[in-house]
Cilia- and flagella-associated protein 45
Amino acid sequence: MVSEAPVFSCVYDVTLWKFEFAMLEKPSSTSSGGSQKSSKSTYRKISDKPIVDEILFGNSSQKKSSNKAASAEQVKRKGDTVVITTSEFQTLKEKSIPIEKQREMERKQREESQEAKERKERMKQLDKEKMLKGERKMSDLDIENQEKQLMLLEKAVSQMDENLDEVKRMNSMALYAQCVTIRDKQLEEKQRILKEKQEAERLQDEAMELERLKAIKMYEQREKKRQEDRRNGALIIKEQMKEREKERLRELELKRQEQEAMLAHMQNMKLEDIKEAEEKRKQEKQLMEEIALANAEQIQLKRRLKLAEMEEDRQIAEYLAEKERKEQEFARQQEQLKAEKEREVARLRALQEKAQDKQSEIDALRAKRAQEALEREYRRKERENEEKRKRMNQELHQARQKQKYEKELKIAELAREDRDEFNHVVDHQKKVEELEKLKSEEEKKRKKETQQQVLEQIESIKESKERQRREYLEEGELLKRKMELERKKVELLRKKKLHELLETGIPEKYTGKIATTDFTIEKLRSPLGDAPTSKPAAPNKK
């Protein structure tokens, strides 16, 4: 580190010979014809190419290729566009500003306050010396005026020092050191911002992945619920079909049981009729035996009654022929009766037979009515079952239509949501592209204006350098007398520059070139003032 003591202790002592050196340069500068441009700052041109700009920002060809690559990458990564808020952008912008400017301002303030303090001390010391010599004490106004004159003199000398080729070379190297330091800081900041951006993108990707998984899960659950509803609906329909099938089977079983009961009842009635007929035949047979054993006197009477009985039996047989064939057997057996009962017995038997025939007719009529009632009940149940089946089919059809309508409504709602989401994404993407386009146009316009300003400055500097070279050739005689003063001044300025650079935080690896370069020898080797064309060694990139 360079100490501050030798820098500031020599300022006042060297001020006078700086002013003398300025006076030596004054005649030649006033005799030149370029006095109209004397107000412009002049310095020696290092190279025709912008070395620092190319080192920091790359040349135009590289810039074009990088722009093409960036545009191609932008096209490729259009789907990976990240949108940040205004506050986040402002935070990144503030963080990207290097802190060297603030350090430089603080350093200048400290130096100015230190110089003002030293000037006051020197003025007080001069006042004391004058008082010792018997001179009049200076007033505060005189001290202030003298201090202002001294300040103006120091500023003028400092400005003249800055116009020296060695100082310009030194400033160029210092500027390069500052630039590469700023570049390192910017690279570090860029790496940090890139890491933060990558982390933010990673977090955003994770959030988007979580949202995607949530959406997938939601859709899966929705689809699962829909399928579950379908399965439940199908199960309900199957259960309904099973219930209807069971009901149909129960009705068929009931019908079969009723038919079996009816057949059994008819069979029982038929068996009872057979039993009654058999019993009647037995009774008749017994009666015939009794009649045969009766009085022989009644045989003739029976013969007379035989025709009547045969006629009656025939009528009975015709009446009962369709329903019972066995009744004819009874009529034939009646013909075997040979004995004729008494009139009263015959009348009673005839009355008894008529009563029996009437009861059979009543039973047949009852059976017929019961059969018709069963048939009517069967037809009624069939109609009810048919109506119930139609009603259930109609309800099932309505349920299916309702389910179909609800499904179509759900599908339309999902399609509308997907369409709205797609339109929102498209609108947002268009807005982002328009903003990017406006930013790109503004950046191109700003770069073009900056390039034009730099070209104008380079042209002005080139003209000033040409004029300065001509003036320098005319001042060849004064060069020998100024060499020693320049060497001392350059060394003093070198120490000051090194001190300033180290104070601003420039690493020593970038200030080593300034500390080891002999600017006076370089000037002797290049009498025309041309700086070496070789670029300062760039630091190793990480």
